[in-house]
Amino acid sequence: MLILVGYLVVLGSVFGGYAMAGGHFGVLFQPLEFLMIAGASAGAFIAGNNGKTIKATLKELPRLLRSSKHNQELYMDLLALLYQLLAKARKEGLMKLETDVDNPGASEIFTRYPRIMAEQGILEFVCDYLRLAISGNTDPHEIEALMDHEMHTVKHEAEMPAHSLAGISDGLPALGIVAAVLGVVHALGSANLPPSEMGELIAQAMVGTFLGVLLAYGFVAPLASLVSQKVAESMKMYECSKVTLLASLHGCAPQLAVEFGRKVLFSTERPSFTELDSHVREVKAG
To answer: Is residue 21 in some structural domain?
Structure first.
């Protein structure tokens, strides 16, 4: 919802300042200018992206209105899940995890964490690399390299909406100039009009430049930035899982392995050592 607050601040600042300067709002109401700019940017968006990117961008836009789900509780659940899996593997052997990772929906451990179960990407990530560890034929360094390749692919795919929105933002000022130039052409084509009417036509034309710049930097660019931030938040779950699993594969005890995972989290969501230790003790007791 913060994005709506930001939009209100943008509109209030721009139009409030315009009103305080004695500007007339009637001249700013130019639906045809807006139609040209919005239509051209939509057409450029369709022409410059494939179907996969267009679908991903349209799917991502409604999510930007929701608050972030990547909070401390979600990361605590992830670390607790990893702790339980690694503790079971250390106590009973890696082979005992095979039924859990093959069918997480029927696993007593996985089903304790419905929020993690809802994160399909991270669920598959954890299960896939535990399967590789169970096979026993892969070196931890090879697993780390494979993790890096997969995370790079996941991040690249998740950032496609941000790149497409950034492209629209970059093009909007130029499309505003196109609309303004067409308005000036129309005004010059009516050179026989009185100066007052000519001035009005030129003012209307300049609205195109104004709209292009305002839409680009006041509305679309923040969307691209917000998508990039959400991608960075989601990738922290992968990084946390990666570091925790690799620490375990290198011989660290489960409680120490989840401490490795805790350290890679952003400071705003990272639980303290005491909070994580208490949470792990509660999990162990349960």
So the answer is: no
Q: What is the pLDDT of residue 23?
A: 80
Region at 107 (left for phi over 0; alpha for psi -120 to 50; beta for the rest):
beta
CA distance 38 to 175: 9
Residue 286, pLDDT > 80, answer no
Q: Which of 93, 85, 90 is closest to 116 using CA atoms?
A: 85
Question: Nearest Cα to 211, choosing from 166, 173, 165, 185?
Answer: 173
Tell me what the pLDDT averaged over the chain comes to. Answer: 89
245: its two tokens: 């699993």
Percent of the chain with pLDDT over 70: 99
Determine the Cα angle at 228 with ends 236 and 223, to 5°. 145
CA–CA separation, 209 vs 15, rounded Å? 15
In a domain, 19, yes or no: no
pLDDT of residue 69: 84
Domain for residue 11, yes or no? no
**138 pLDDT higher than 80:** no
Q: Alpha-carbon distance 162 to 63, whole Å?
A: 13
Which single residue is written with the structure tokens 């007593």? 108
Tokens of 7: 């939009």
For residue 246, which of 85, 121, 129, 151 has the smallest C-alpha distance? 129
Task: Classify the C-alpha dihedral 169-170-173-176 as positive or negative.
Answer: negative
Contacts with 281 (C-beta within 8 Å, 6 or more apart), sequence order: none
The boundaries of the domain holding residue 120 are 28-286
Residue 18 in any domain: the answer is no
- Range 135-160 average pLDDT: 90
Number of domains, the chain: 1
pTM of the model: 0.83
